[in-house]
Protein 1
Amino acid sequence: MIIAIDGPAGAGKSSVAQRVAEELGFQLLDTGAIYRSVALVSLEAGLSWEDGPALGDLASQLDIRYQLRDGQNRVFLRLRGGTERDVSGSLRTPEISQGASKVANHPEVRAALLELQRRIGRARPSVVEGRDIGTVVFPDARCKVFLTASPQERARRRHTQLVERGATEVPTIDAIAREIRERDTRDSERAVAPLRAAADAVQVDSSDITEDAVVARIVALASPDKRD
Ligand code: DC
């Protein structure tokens, strides 16, 4: 049982996916965390983020486990033959965000991670959040949502987040919106598994509705699956 939630950065996927998973008692599979883990481990191993074959080999040795508890989705990583460790605190730095988007461009990495994502997702009822879940990873998911928000609204949210975090240099909302549009173009035009809505996905625009409403909408869409 898979609920696929795809969409661009800043549309509110992470918190929405987490709340939907909690409400339904499903596992939350944050696939971005897997790409981030590859970036982290390759950085530690001294591999270049441009070396597709080496990164693909590394990705094929990766195992990930999640634990959703007290509103936090912890990520545990293990390389074949190694011991498991909690990497939750190391995945969200700007450096790893950059690295994740670079490693995600290599077909070797995407192919290796495809199997891992499918294995984790098939083990338990799951909410799977990412960019290519409804199109590539779980094309047979019975509930697919493509969550969007206007670039202006995503920029506004990102701006508020930076201010709340006490960031020292906060760009203007217009500058953030420009950067978001550029990233959208790059993500949707990438050759392998570009960001796009599956033909059978329900598009949910979160620009003008509350997060509560988005969560309720997705839970309602998933409910017929639950009754099966
Ligand atoms: O969702 P996120 O910001 O944690 O994702 C990190 C990077 O991983 C992002 O730049 C795009 C990539 N990614 C991907 O290519 N495919 C996915 N299913 C999930 C993430």
Protein 2
Amino acid sequence: MHTRIETIDPACPDLRVISEAGRILREGGLVAFPTETVYGLGGDALNPEASDKIYGAKGRPSDNPLIVHIADREALGGIVREIPPKALALADAFWPGPLTMIFGKNGRVPLNTTGGLDTVAVRMPSHPAARELIRRSTGYIAAPSANVSGRPSPTKAIHVIEDLRGRVEMILDGGPVGIGLESTIVDFSERIPTVLRPGYISVEMLEEVIGTARVDRGLMAEDSSARPKAPGMKYRHYAPRAELVIVEGEESRVVEAVNGWIQEKESRNMHCGVIATDETAPLYRVGAVVSMGPRGDEEELARHLFDVLRRFDSMDVACIYSESFYTPRMGQAIMNRLLKAAGHRVVQV
Ligand code: AMP
Ligand code: MG
């Protein structure tokens, strides 16, 4: 398949291009597009064949449901059975934005879109191009992250091109995204609203609006006895090709340990990478050192994570050591992705 790649101004996209993309979606084709979180791989959420195509293009397991993207609040009522009052409160506070909520679905949403579930995940993005595209589609775009299943999510158009060129009709290049981690997912099926995937919006921010919320027990855990409620969270994800190990401990000990390990590996002709911060990068004497940004700026750390993971794929490294990033607000979201990328390999020093 030929993939058209169109560059757009993210704040003020060319409406002729967006209309053309909307037409492709209405006709059952696939368009990858920027959102404020990561790039999405869009298809018409109400068309079962379009959903099947999304799974095919990504190589995504068919039990891993898709998030439906809407452009205005009225659209929500068109696909769900009911809207819990707490969901309305969260929509008031955080939509449009990086929050996904799970609702009971009505008959308009095909099971192909929801991975066979009776529920549907819905988000209203704030990105102007995404919103314009939704309006010019059927109003409902199913869009998982626009990466091949298992790879780090795309935060730049080049990541999408690497993974999906030849598998989708069009890629809209709106430049690097603003947040860089996928949306926070909240489920209301139990008494206490539950975060199924941490993101830019933290549990504390949710609690300010709706009182108590909790985090799904299966989220940060490695063992499958605490099975995550979002089916997708059980799959290996975000993985760079090289083996990734997270090294935890006091900063100077982490630096010393990593320098020692890499020196030893280099003596056997194995090259290694390091995921560091602006502050620690100069302290690593060996290896391919990549900084996530200043440790004090967690939004920048989050924005760079997936790009940093992908960057190692084009380097000849056999292993990657990463510092940990338990920052105050987004630390849980960053570490959830990093732990998955590392297959939960963590060494304490
Ligand atoms: P992605 O589309 O790559 O951002 O992944 C979507 C995430 O949302 C996956 O982890 C899914 O398992 C989760 N998800 C989507 N729909 C539902 C649903 N109805 N119930 C629970 N989790 C869902
Ligand atoms: Mg994904």
Protein 3
Amino acid sequence: MNVLLIGSGGREHALAWKLAQSPKLGKLFAMPGNPGIAEHAQLVDINAADHRATIDFCLKNSIELIVIGPEAPLVDGLADNLRTMGFCVFGPNKIPAQLEGSKGFTKELCARYGIPTARFSLASDRLAAEAALEDFKLPVVIKADGLAAGKGVVIAETPEDVEAALDAMFGGGFGAAGSSVVIEEFMTGEEASFFALTDGETVVPFGSAQDHKRVGDGDTGPNTGGMGAYSPASVLTPALEQRAMDEIVRPTVKALAERGTPYSGVLYAGLMLTAEGPKLVEYNARFGDPECQVLMMRLKSDLLGLMCAVAKGKLADEEPPEFSSEAALTIVMAANGYPATPEKGGPISGIAAAEADGAKVFQAGTAAAAGKLVASGGRVLNVTATGASVGEARNLAYEAAGRIDFPAGFYRRDIGWRELERGR
Ligand code: AMP
Ligand code: GLY
């Protein structure tokens, strides 16, 4: 079967690597891909925002499955247009992708169906926001409604923080994403990411992970897309995972099906494990990056078989996904200056040496320049290893990272600290 994978990050490299192991795979294409993905796929230079060109490519190359990695094409309705043309697609249509595309959409769905989440209020102008804020204590969480690349969330501790957040959101600082805001009660607890595959009806758990959002050691500095991750997240015990399935994920999938806009693909639930149980922080309509990298290292089942079953609405006929009992951990190597102004063009070498003992280096923001590998984005490499425990996976991943020569880059030295502290 010929497959088209859309995206160009470390998540997509991990998906390509795993898809390439499938006996069902014919030819793999990636749009636009990156030099790491090129080891498994033929790269296609078409912009996924051009739906017509994407469809033409799929028709010409007998594509039987399209896997959409990032959120932007999902929220943009690429899956809808491909499905209209009769293609099988892994990834939700535009309306169900609003679970990620609009925080207000998700909060209203939670309210209507009794799905546990932080108490909230929606406001579409500053006056309404100020009035709503009277019902919330500090700290309070203020979020831009739309996609803001992880930057649209402010945890306001003081009245001055609240003012600054409202200024930024209603002052156009977040573009259309900030034209309405969600005000939320601040929840306390540990965060964990939980994944499920669904074809709109059948829902199966697909592993857990924890990531490190802040750029610096000890979880300091600005937020990023994620500086490292590990799986499984032992804090999400089997009992809590069951509650997350029963109280959050299954009711969400059922609600969207009832509304006539079923969700098909992977559903990523960001959970807060509060004293009262798991509560939803946010949904993503795709795999996490770099969470996907650690999930793929542990997945034993055939990814292509699972994705096809999801896309065809036949997940109930498929054996449930199976994961290795080993842990996996990934370290993100980022370009100096990330997240504000990452330096481009820094040379990279040593990947083969890093992989010599079983670690895997997924490429995220890389490019080939005159036959050499260089940095071309903020997050550049994901050095990933497995081991009997998170601690063992961590040691192997750091050993591998030490063999990479990327002078214009940096990485955190404490990925996995929560899990290691628990083990003590
Ligand atoms: P989000 O983009 O909604 O995932 O928010 C980004 C981060 O802000 C989350 O990963 C949490 O660490 C934090 N956060 C968001 N909402 C809340 C909340 N209601 N209470 C506490 N922390 C939150
Ligand atoms: N690592 C967080 C995300 O993919 O949204």
Protein 4
Amino acid sequence: MSESHERTFVMVKPDAFQRGLVGEIVGRLEDRGLKLVAMKLLTPTQEQGEAHYAEHEDKGFYDDLVEFITSGPAVPMVVEGEDAISVVRDMIGATDPKEAAPGTIRGDYALDIGRNCVHAADSPESAEREIDIYFDEDEKTDYEADFEGWVYE
Ligand code: IDP
Ligand code: MG
């Protein structure tokens, strides 16, 4: 990984999976020039769901959130690139999709805060923590992305 690059954690949530938006969401990340490092199709376990949203444990919506995220298939990913964490947060848009700008994933595909299609880590610490919930070390690929010479100066 180039020195200025960072890894982030992204997940297509069960609502977007059921709506057939996996390709659209992954495609936007690829089109932007981000590098896919790891990806799975799985239904998050109760333990994974609770750990994923541990920071919201004391919120009124926590139980519903964990129930939703464990309700069916989701696509967790590790994505790499320059400033990938903030770049992807900007690409997904505001938490409440009604406030998300058109052109963002949530702004284009969602209307309800509890069904906002996609998750992305909000800091380097969250990214590392969330990646570890869903991926073992040997599940992260190590390869040269030849396109990067055309994406970065
Ligand atoms: P984020 O997904 O944009 O990082 P967070 O504040 O970390 O937003 O919240 C995690 C998830 O919890 C959100 O994506 C959303 O689905 C859900 N959520 C956040 N706030 C509320 C709320 O007030 N009511 C219901 N669900 C919420
Ligand atoms: Mg969050």
